[in-house]
Automatic annotation (TrEMBL):
Gene3D superfamilies: 6.10.250.1220, Winged helix-like DNA-binding domain superfamily/Winged helix DNA-binding domain. The keyword Transcription applies. Pfam families: GntR. Keywords: DNA-binding, Transcription, Transcription regulation. Coiled coil: none annotated. The keyword Transport does not apply. InterPro entries: Tscrpt_reg_HTH_GntR, WH-like_DNA-bd_sf, WH_DNA-bd_sf. This is GntR family transcriptional regulator. It comes from Pseudaquabacterium inlustre.
Length: 116
């Protein structure tokens, strides 16, 4: 199955976001090697340059480190760092909009559940 890409954001950023979500979920552990550019290109059906750019974005965010001759590895503390920055972004950017929409629709906290 081919992954779905949204036309509103650059594909490399969408891939970086997907890989970051895998880090948050623990699918890729701290200290582990990241899959190779070739492996990710095949898995997501993307140009290797796009994959390289996504990995560079994760490196620029302080989540990955390049070990010369070995590849890219998840930095120790990357998950906590990512959780903090994503939490801050959510509370600053997304939550106010979501709270306003809930208010408009007259949805109270008691109307919401955590279960699916």
């Amino acid at each position: 199955m081919q992954p779905h890409w949204d036309h509103r954001a650059p594909i490399y950023q969408q891939l970086a976001d997907r890989l970051a979500a895998r880090l948050l979920d623990g699918d890729i552990a701290e200290g582990d090697a990241m899959p190779s550019v070739r492996a990710l290109s095949g898995q997501y059906l993307l140009n290797p340059l796009t994959v390289s750019r996504a990995l560079a974005a994760l490196g620029d965010a302080g989540l990955l480190e390049n070990r010369r001759g070995l590849g890219l590895y998840v930095r120790p503390g990357a998950r906590l760092h990512l959780r903090r920055t994503e939490r801050e972004r959510f509370l600053h950017d997304e939550w106010p909009q979501l709270r306003e929409r809930l208010r408009r629709l007259d949805i109270a906290a008691t109307d919401l559940t955590w279960e699916e």
